[in-house]
Amino acid sequence: MSNPLSPPASRASGAETARSDPALEDAIERLLRHAGPHLVIGAPLGLGKPHRVLNALYARIAADPSRRLTILSALSLARPRAKAGLERRFLGPFVERHFGAAFEDPAWFLAQQRDALPPNIEVEEFYLPSGALLGSRQAQQHYASLNYTHAARGIAARGCNAIVQSVARGPGGRLSLSCNPDLTFDLVDALAARGLPRPLMLAEVHPELPYVERGASVDPGFFDIVLTPARLPPLFAVPRQPVSLAEFAIGLYASTLVKDGGTLQIGIGALSDALTHALVLRHTRNADYRRILEALWPEAGTSALVRETGGLTPFEHGLFGCSEMVMDGFRVLAEAGVLKRAVVPDAAAQARLDAGTATPADLALREAEGELLHGGFFLGSHDLYRWLRQVGSADSPFRLRMTRISEINQLGTDTAALQAAQRRHARFINTTMMQTVLGAAVSDALEDGRVVSGVGGQYNFVAMGHALPDARSILLFRAVRESGAMVSSSLLWHYGHATIPRHLRDLAISEYGIADLRDRGDADCIRAMLAIGDARFMPALAGKAIAAGKLDRADAGTWARNTPEAIDAALAPFRREGLLPEYPMGSDFTPTEQDLVRALGRLKRDTATRVGKAGALWKALWLDEARATPREAAALARMGYDGREGWREALERRLLRSALRATAHTLSAGPSLPPPHSPR
């Protein structure tokens, strides 16, 4: 299946949109008059981009070679695009249902993918949708490698003269930057610090955006232009993906390093979902959580690392969330009662509250101003947006603050003491693509320099994990990478690019365990990393370390049991019980579509080589089509097969049915259980 953020063709041009809305047309004219011949426009990353406005500007300037447009942003979001055949049959109806037929894709992003941006339009982003622009020369050449905290400075240096942003409207007509206060405030300040004019500020009110009061609300006068269209397409919601047993193993290991009464930062994706689910199990179903750990890691209960760094008990004091990104995991942790440690804007009071020596004034301060979650931007599912509409108001019992990224991702000169008090026992948990045995991490780009995504805030949080006195940086990675029939190790001797240098090595986790690298010498670091690598690749890797003089010998026993079969043997019984569900955060797919996701994934793996393709075709041709199960019939109907297809589609149908039967043994979720995020 294609990358979930790869876009299809756009359905409506920006010029048509502008002509149908006089207010939008007037706003575009004002932007062009303000900027002169070169419009340098800043737009928030992710959800905060008003596609309607930007597409209209793009169309207008693309048709006028006398003008120039520079778009400065990050993470442009577009609907998935399927190839012909089985992919299109599956994704077509899903995309229509999930995103809505009226969703407007970013025209500049579609053009970038084809290297078709006009010569008078340039797009520069500091974070790309993962893997979606690897083949675009225009995107690769104009990518700006910036830490998230440096992005406002970089945009200001380019002379940004306009900002456009989606906003929410709240009580009394106030506006909220909602999903994206992350860079807007910092950018306005950065422009002023350079002595540049204040940019023209345009807001488009989206009726579905959650209104967030704390940290994100502004008077309407903050913006020069406020558009309130009668209708807009639904918000972009990221489709939730299944979580494998290997990914659950990583999440379970990481969950043991989170300390009760501490602070949590996490990102988005399957590894984050696995960690969140493990934390909820630890809190709400502790006996089951310990059973799973006993099967995966029998030594967890006696581990000095777990005792000193984290724990296995439920969260009596709870956690405070502090993360650049607010996503579904924080919603689930809040609903489970894990996210309940409130922070206050006074360092001394915070220290007394955490020590259990709070004064009545401290308790009153927590009651009046205590906050449970700080974030810079949010992106996730429709369920996340519904929850944020409930908790975003000033009088919500769950207090959320959305604020500038400079307050989240780094320690301030004047606020470091307060941040240290609030972020006690911080666990900064991020995902990386590859790691070296010496502790460097590769998270954003390939060896040849092509950018997969971006640095974002990862470096900031890793550095903060070393700067705060009781914090730890934890990097999660899958031990192997799969590409078709090719399997390779994600643990390497060296790599031509590093996102996190080896001198910032701390805790690394794969599905085979935890490596504590902090303050270790190189030989000890290599041994710890070899112990969590896949057994198929470690002998050769150890040989390279020995040849380089970094290791005298390697103990093969430390990795001998590190196989996918061992993970399945340990965790598959708990999947059958329903304790490790495929979609722990909920699913956007119907049960029939979940069957199809498994089958299509199996078919893709089986046909990755010529031999595999021949074997799959042989099985399909000899398939007994007469004994279709009800689930099989439902899956074929969902794919639009009715038995009247031509020979090519009939062969696709047979291949799919064969894959459905091959994955049938994995379909049972086991007995019905209370949701793991419901306290028991």
What does this structure look like?
39% of the residues lie in helices and 13% in strands. The protein is an alpha/beta fold and 680 residues long. The strands form 4 sheets. Strands 1, 2, 3, 4, 5, 6, 7 and 8 form an 8-stranded mixed β-sheet that branches. Strand 14 and strand 15 (441-442) form a beta hairpin. Helix 9 packs across helix 10 and helix 10 (270-284) runs parallel beside helix 13 (328-335). The two termini are 38 Å apart.
Shape: globular
Distance between the termini: 38 Å
Amount of helix: 25-40%
Q: Radius of gyration over alpha carbons?
A: 26 Å
Largest sheet: 8 strands, mixed
Indicate the structural class: alpha/beta
Total helix count? 26
Characterize this entry briefly.
With 680 residues, this protein is α/β, with parallel strands linked by helices. It has 26 helices and 21 strands.
Task: Record the SSE blueprint.
Elements: H1 14-19, H2 22-35, E1 38-42, H3 51-62, E2 68-73, H4 86-99, H5 107-113, E3 121-125, H6 137-142, H7 151-157, E4 162-169, E5 175-176, H8 184-193, E6 200-205, E7 217-218, E8 225-227, H9 245-255, E9 263-265, H10 270-284, H11 286-296, H12 304-309, E10 320-326, H13 328-335, H14 347-355, H15 360-369, E11 373-378, H16 382-391, E12 400-402, H17 405-408, H18 416-422, E13 426-431, E14 434-436, E15 441-442, H19 458-467, E16 472-476, E17 480-483, E18 486-489, E19 491-492, E20 507-510, E21 513-516, H20 522-530, H21 538-547, H22 564-577, H23 591-606, H24 610-621, H25 630-638, H26 647-662
Helix pairs in contact: 7-8, 9-10, 9-22, 10-11, 10-13, 14-18, 23-25, 23-26, 24-26
